[in-house]
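BUG: 3D viewer hangs when loading the predicted structure for this chain

Environment: internal workstation, default settings.
Expected: structure renders.
Actual: progress bar stalls at 90%.

Input used:
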Amino acid sequence: MKPSDLHYPSSWEQRSPHLGDQILFIPEFYSNHHLWEKRPFFDDENPIHVELCSGNGEWILDRAEENPDVNWIAVEMKFKRVRKIWSKMKNRGIKNLLVVCGKAEPFVKYYLKQAKQVFVNFPDPWPKRRHAKNRLFQGEFISDLATCVTDELTFVSDDSCYTQQVVREMLGSKRWHSLVKDPYVENLEEGYGGSYFQRLWKDLGRNISMLRFAPSKVVKLDLSLRSRLDFPEVQGDLWHLDLGLDRHLPRMLDTMIFQSYRLGIGHFLETYEVPKRIILYDGSLDFVEEMIRTDVDMLAFTDWLKDEFKSVDNLRVRTGIETEAFVDLERQEMIVHTMGRQLMRLYCVDVLSNYLHRLSALLPEESEVLVRFDYTGVESESMIEQLLSSDRFAHLKILGREIIPSNRAICLPSDEMMSEEIVKQLDEIFYVVRAPYKVIPEGTFNENWHEIDEVIVVSQALSNVGKRMLHGFCAAGGRVLTCGERVGVVEEETWKVSG
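Structure tokens produced before the viewer hung:
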């Protein structure tokens, strides 16, 4: 069989899905995928393993030949490549392989009934930022995968930026958990199998990473103040304790309500075995309007501002907010002011993180305590990083903000140094720096520099203490990339955002 022996089964005008001769055609620009009735692709009950983005098929052809007791499905959207897979399959007499000519997204959503394992080897990383929307692993596709994969999903790539995104998208969805402990990445294992791209990137000296995930069974329990605490007999991998905090944020300041939550969590722990993973909060990161409603709320906020800035002059210089006294600040004016609203967010997140840490202390030490945020309404990446900095959530893990190994970091200035100008500079840095990076708050830099080789700093936002820590970092062999005026450390390079 030659690749040219394979032809489309229908004309463009009459396009429709077609299954036959070990190949499934899924047409592009087709709106009736939902009419396909999911059916078995094989005559036996052997487990099904799927490879998405199969390329020329080298990897999956070898796997199918070596594992005749497993049924394999190769999914590839480019017809030229599909022809090569199909002809090699026929010429090698491989019977336990189905070739799918079409995109992975509709195949998973409308055609695949169930698969034991799914493999994704060297998918197109779409490295340019404007093309990122074309990446396979995001949004609905991740949820669709979770409905049909029973055991495991394996992702292999040489692109560290895409690998970082996949970790965050998968774990942030709540539908998956990593089978590899933090930092989630492992080297490609011996005997995994080879392919053209695997050999190409290995010969070029690129590091090839492997991620492994399993679908999570999420159990959501009502522990809100209205709950009767009548828990069902269920088992799960991820437990979401819905305390109602995302709906009743001001109640965090009520001591009696905390005691109610304590009783609810205690009953939960008495009812079930010690859970491995628990979500305490799943809601908005921007809840200013819900948290700061009254004059009493504003008074608590302005007291917090006094502790942060000490004087209204400091507040004016750093944020551009004009006021004669902290108590004169108006709620609505602060809400519509870019930096004013960010300060209100910081206050609210501080209250929330302190409350969550108190709640997490009620849980067993062996349980991993998680939070998950919706970033809608927060204008910039640097503002998100400021709100979610590790010194605010020291003992909580934030779903969707996981970090894979990296020797580069960006130094996050202290809150009092974050002006609108600094926010813009940091946003440009986050936009340009594509490779995975750690974000280290200035205040904890000396505790974390042993993990990195170089750090990007905005010199204008460095405190004197921060500059001294950079001298120590360079003395330990590190390198500083400075945006703005040079700091004057030994190993320093000027770093331009445009570069």
